[in-house]
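User: Could you check the structure of this?
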Amino acid sequence: MSITTRAAVVESAGAPFTLSEVVLDEPGPHEAVVRLAAAGLCHTDLGVASGGLPFPLPGVLGHEGAGVVEAVGPAVTGVAPGDHVVLSFTSCGECRNCHGGHPAYCAGWLPLNLLGGRRADGTATISRDGEALGGHFFGQSSFAERALVDERSLVKVDPDVPLASIAPLGCGVQTGVGAVWNVLKPTTGSTIVVLGAGAVGLSAVMAAALSPATTIIAVDRVAERLQLAKELGATHTVDAGQTALGEAIAEITGGRGADGIVETTGSTAVLRQGVDALAARGTLVVVGAPPFGSEVALDVNGLLGGKQVVGLTLGDSETQTFIPALVELVKEGRLPLDRLIGTYAFEDIGQAVQDMTSGKTIKPVLTF
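Assistant: Sure, the predicted structure tokens are below.
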């Protein structure tokens, strides 16, 4: 039986989120109906809403959901009604990367998560007045009171942890943490630099603080965010509006450079500066996404000292093990996400967007 619910719909590129009644399709064999308790707002949502990516509109976005399972399809085995879940990206489960433990690099990742707006078989998950809407966003479309969720987007979590406190784990936080733990893998005494102190960057700072790295440098232009980065584990901060990045890192590291850099800003100019600031055999992880088609020029001879530039999607995480571990760290107070989160009633999604865009709130979380 189909379900009528209320969702935040983007009618066209550049239009605001407006609340509207929509109809969820009947759950397929590998789908579940989830009653949302919270959903994080991410810059990817805003980029799609602005028309920066070819997602079909009108549509329902949202990809950092958290809630309670209400019903499951007949083939779902990992969760049951009543389970608390965090919603993350989906994947095919059949390709080489999925089988190899790297579902963020699924062969079907783009159409299944970001661009398609429908299930893999082409059917719609959400409609309004009999017309299909863009849905299935990251297998969830969680800007709604209820969502029809792909089984591979569901991660069962500890019911004792408030869902609003862990909704951002589905995308932004696991991306920042995964950049450090899954790619850079700091060794004893490492120097880690995080470019950009937004939600992803500050998650990377917290992850670095839980690693053997001894020098953690946060770079931003906003003094309040740099102060927060220090409180979350950065040993040094650099105001990029006042100091040249390369000079600052050289001074802090005694001219050696950085062992690992997480680039979250999406600026190709900043990316280039980061590569130049790497130590021999250092690695820069590209997280921030500039517009499609963006290119960056690199000094080829500068790379010959063993430098690596690595692109990253969603922390290269295997969600079924990674997210529950992060939930445990939140529960223990060792990953203090509450320092990033500002909560908003679902009806106030417009204010949440405004506060995120202005920088007033680092990670808005909608509550239902």
